[in-house]
Amino acid sequence: MAYLTLHKEEALAEAQRIDDKIKKGEEIDLLSGIPMALKDNMCVQGGRTTAASKILDNYIAPYDATVVKKLKKQGAVILGKTNMDEFAMGSSTENSAYQKTKNPHDLNRVPGGTSGGSAAAVAGGLAVYALGSDTGGSVRQPASFCGVVGLKPTYGRVSRHGLIAMASSFDQIGPVTQTVEDAAIVLSRIAGRDKKDATSAKSGGKLYEDYLQGDIRGMKIGVPKEYFSDDLSSEIKEISIKALEKFKKLGAELVEINIPHNEYALPVYYITVPSEISSNMARFDGIRYGLSVDDQEQSKIGGGNLLETYLDSREIGLGTEVKRRIMLGTYALSAGYYDAYYKKAQKVRRLLKQDFEKAFESVDLIFSPTAPEPAFKIGEKTTDLLQMYLSDIYTVTANLVGVPAISFPIGTVEREGKNLPIGGQLMGRWFGEEELLNAAHTFEIN
Amino acid sequence: MLKKEDIMHIAQLARIGLKEEEIEKYQRELSLVLDYFKKLEAVDTENIESIGHITGSHSVVRDDKIIECEAKIIEEIINNFPDQKNNQVKVKSILT
Questions:
Q1: CB atoms A331 and B12 under 8 Å
Q2: Chain A residue closest to B60 (CA)?
Q3: Domains along chain B?
């Protein structure tokens, strides 16, 4: 199941309103009346918003997220809220506290994560498009697993106001769509500076769909040596090389480049993200909203009234992966370890950003597979922590350095008689969504 | 490997209640990930500053003016309080 909550009445009422407008011959926007889905970590006023966690089981959002406000203004028909890994932590949507979501291409497999419900809904025809959030690949990896398009905009391109925060220096909201053109259309309507998100940037009302010329002649596409090492399976490598040859045929120039600090991207990611998580998740304390538990029994590590509420609410309300990351981050930020973990990671993050600045001096875009494999089986990786983390190897870097990145279908592999989609990823320059979308679009239409 | 006391200390800092059997599990898992982080020791970060804002924006401020919140939003925020009295969130006593 892709949806956690349906907004049946509201959706029908909005559809009726748009129908009436059409009947009267009024002008409507491109997105008016188009049924769409929202990942359940984005607030819709008066609607249940759980982030797939038991701690927010009864939470009713008091306001609209900025993206929701913008889409409502366009007359979007919001069908409901989609399943995800709890608080967007995971790679398969198996960490949802509520239900499993299956991959429409093979029901024994995961849809990817964390925006797995959004990707499965679009791939399965249950929504024309959906919004997801991407902290380390959570829009792109499920898009790759489900054979659809997923865009992570530049950090700051889309307001995060009303998105339940995971790691605030990484999180970006992005569209999951059936085509690159759709991704451009949706981005145009959710992007822009927002007073309620100090990290958001001006977009100048740009219509990204106007930049899809379908011509990439002379464009330079970087191919990082590090991304095509022997660790990459031969079948994914083969499909990626075919995609690169197609780009070449379309007139792009392929340039071999280096990202020297690439091998450190995952450890840097898994130090800095849990650190930000441990801070952001402190708000779930059983006091202000959400689940509040106090069994009045002294737990082993605490004592006292108020402390018991914190300890019990969080013990019962939060899932294993969430607790694990909060504890990892707490450790990385604690006295005596801060310099060795967090500070060190933030330094290496700067070196990675410098690698990208240097790479973009000689190329316009950077290509890689989106994920090292097709969708894996439900339950296959739930016991192996590091294996699960490794599925983010190609996607975390864009969030670490802040650049925009898109995943789009480049081929399929066969597993047990089923064709499973494989996604290719392009990364672009900071705030260079026009070039990025044009390149993926040109690939798609040819 | 992290000791049992380390896990208890982290959990206490993070305000997460743990069951006895979970302590051992987290000892194992957190140690595994922390070992993986050791990879970073190989990177020379001498004279490298920690990164700040990733796209370089800084000191974003707004006018110091009170912006009124819509009554409906206030009402819904209050409705989300697990416990309330006279429209205030009710908290258990800290000092007893």
A1: no
A2: A198
A3: 4-42 (1.10.20)
